[in-house]
Amino acid sequence: MHFSRPEKISRRKGVNVTELCDFNQLGLDFVLPPSYSTPLGKETELMNNELIETLEKKIGEFVEKYSALKEENARLNVEIQRLSNDREGLRSRVDAILGRLDGI
Hints:
Blueprint: E1 4-8, E2 18-22, H1 42-103
């Protein structure tokens, strides 16, 4: 590949002499626009597929954990309700016992 551009040699009016300037000699590394984006190779496609599969697996695990935690939360809410009812029952029994003791 030849990286060059015309450069004017003469600065005199009316004279338009050009010479090619090699950018590699100047220490400049220019990349032509078409090589900025290259089509995906098979290695890149395989890597993308592996990343997608890994992501799908992690999302699946996340959904399973979320479902398990949601079920546990529902079970714990039922347990909290049962314990609250038991506590209210005990409170009323203790109040009744204290009322009888006050009457003695």
